[in-house]
Structures are given as structure tokens and as C-alpha cells.
Amino acid sequence: RAKHSGRSTFVWYTSEMDAEAQKRKEIEAGLVKALKFDQFELVYQPQFSLHDNRLKGYEALIRWEHPTKGTISPDVFISVAEDTGLIEDIGDWVLRRACQEAATWEDKSLRVAVNFSPAQFRAGETQKKVAKAIAESGLDPRRLEIEITESLLIADTDAVVETLEDIHALGVTIAMDDFGTGYSSLSYLSRFPFDKIKIDRSFIRTLGRDIGTDAIVTSIIGLGRSLNVQITAEGVESQEQVTLLRAAGCDLVQGYLFGRPGAVRQGISTMSAAEAPLSRPHPDAADQT
Ligand code: C2E
Ligand code: MG
Ligand code: MG
Ligand code: MG
Start and end of every EAL domain (predicted)? Predict the structure, then answer.
């Protein structure tokens, strides 16, 4: 077979690579179609305040509704979109759709958080696109939040600071996503106009079961307080985690315990009693009540 394909025996050494490259090519072709035939959708995951137990907003998360393969997760296709430049069009779509949908929500106090890839920033024009999405949807800019990861901050720092400040000046809030997983230079935190830091769910996962993790999470929350930046815990799945986060002074929570990404639940404004230990105090949290 190697002979017929006109390739050397290297085929045997690279077949795995070829398969991976082939798969990415297929995803790329699929993404072009997905854009053309409107196969993307946004699902929303609620974010609650631990101070008053109230719903504060939703994070918009993209899904690819493939006609034959079903729902495809962003973990499968975002990196392909980034490598091929398709992220620009997909990101534009996400931004516009999230603003449009949030503008129709009954509760006009709720925020919508949109994930941005570093590649979207490099494409430039970010501030203009954000301003346009706001203007076209009629969404109050203070209801829009942009989530970025630390990887954005590594290259071209001055340009990124400027872009983020332009976006911030529109009234849009900025959150640092997946905090603690990247290069985490603490100096970033004071240089960039962040309103929020989201502690990566890998830390939340071992909270209460690992002294090191507990110390890190407590420190990040303390850092947030001194920098006057709100702290969100991502990936909260258990009541025990909520109790610890509440005791540490964490501001916001998001995770399967409070709701999986899905449709926006109109009419819900507080977390349910089962998730709100303030109304059902845990012995360890006694000093918090
Ligand atoms: P992220 O921004 O950190 O989003 C949180 C991810 O954690 C989501 O995965 C969410 O479903 C998942 N999650 C939430 N709560 C829990 C929990 O309690 N336990 C566990 N195990 N997981 C939880 P999802 O939706 O698959 O998204 C994965 C990543 O893809 C996102 O991570 C984000 O980096 C990226 N992404 C999603 N939508 C977009 C988008 O519109 N644009 C861009 N550029 N990236 C996106
Ligand atoms: Mg996010
Ligand atoms: Mg995250
Ligand atoms: Mg992530």
C-alpha cells in the first residue's frame, strides 16, 4: 500500500500523525459547513453569588449540533478553529448570538459571559466587534463579560492591555478564565483590567481533600480581595466544596451542582435551598453566619 500511495516507508512511522492530521482536516471542513448551515448553538451555565445566593448571570458555551454525529463539544473543535483561523468567524458568531439572546432575557440584570480565544484578539478589531455586537443587540454593555485565558497575556502585552482597556471602557467586564493553569505571572493581575478571576476547576476538584489545593484556593481568594477583583469558582460539584468556598470568602460559583450548561431557566433568581447552606448552616461554616 505504501508503494501505491507513492510514499516512502515513512508512512509506517507517521501513520498515527497522519490519522490525527486527517481528523483535523475533517473537522476543519465540517466547521466551514457548520458556519454556512448554522449548526452552532449556545448553551448557558448559571453563575450564583455566594453572598446573597442570587443568580448573577450565565456563561455562554458553544455546541456544534452535527447533522449525523450529534452534539460535538468545543474541546474537540475549538483548537482546530484556532489553528485554521476559523475561530474568527465562529467567535464573531458567538459574540453576536450571546448578545442577542441575553438582550431577550426577562431579567435585565443578568450578565452573559463570552469566551474569547487569544487568536480572536490577534485578529485585531476586537473592540470594534464588541461595540458592534452591543449596538446591534441593544444589550447594556455592563451585562456583557469577556472571558480570556492567561495564554493571551504572554505575547504582545502592550497591544493586549490596550485592547482590553478599550473593551473595558465600553462598560464590558473582563474575567480571567482557568486561572492557575497557565503561566500565572501574578504581575499580570495588576497590569490588566480584570474584574473577575475564575479559579480553574482542577483546583476545585480536590478542594477539601488536599491541603495544598486548599491553600492555593484560599490564597487566590485573598488575592482577589486585595486587588478588588471578584473570584468565581468553576466546576463546583459538591455541597462540601460550596461550604469551603463560602468560608474562604469566594464571591461566585458555577458548576454542575448549580446547573449544567443548557437552556436559560426563566424565572429562577436564587439557588435552591439544597445548594444554599446559609439557610441550612453547616457546622464548619458557623463563623460565616
Ligand atoms: P471554560 O470556559 O473553562 O468553560 C467551562 C467548562 O467546564 C465547560 O465545558 C463546562 O461545561 C464545564 N463545566 C462546568 N461546570 C462543570 C462541573 O461542575 N464539572 C465539570 N467536570 N465540568 C464543568 P465546555 O462547555 O465543554 O467548554 C470547554 C471549553 O471550551 C471552555 O472552557 C472554553 O475554554 C471553550 N469554549 C466553550 N465555548 C467557547 C466559545 O464560544 N468560544 C471559545 N473561544 N471557546 C469556547
Ligand atoms: Mg470560560
Ligand atoms: Mg474555565
Ligand atoms: Mg477551559
Answer: 24-275
C-alpha–C-alpha distance, residues 123 and 228, integer Å? 31
Rounded to whole angstroms, how far apart are CA atoms 265 and 270?
11
- Please determine, for the modelled complex, whether the ipTM score is greater than 0.95: yes
Segment 199-240, tens digit of pLDDT: 999 999 999 999 999 999 999 999 999 999 999 999 999 999
Burial (0-12, 13-18, 19+ Cβ within 10 Å), 212: exposed
Name every protein residue with a CB atom under 6 angstroms from any ligand 1 atom.
45, 61-62, 73-75, 78, 91, 94, 115-117, 147, 177-178, 201, 234-237, 255-256, 261
Parallel, antiparallel or unpaired: strands 40-49 and 55-66: antiparallel
Q: What is the number of other CB atoms lying within 10 angstroms of the CB of residue 86?
A: 20
Q: Which long-range contacts (CB under 8 A, 24 or more apart) does 153-156 make?
A: 153/183, 153/185, 153/188, 153/192, 154/183, 156/122
Q: Which residues contact 21 (CB under 8 A, 6 or more apart)?
A: none
Are residues 48 and 56 in contact, defined by beta-carbon separation less than 8 angstroms? yes
- Residue 72 pLDDT > 50, yes or no? yes
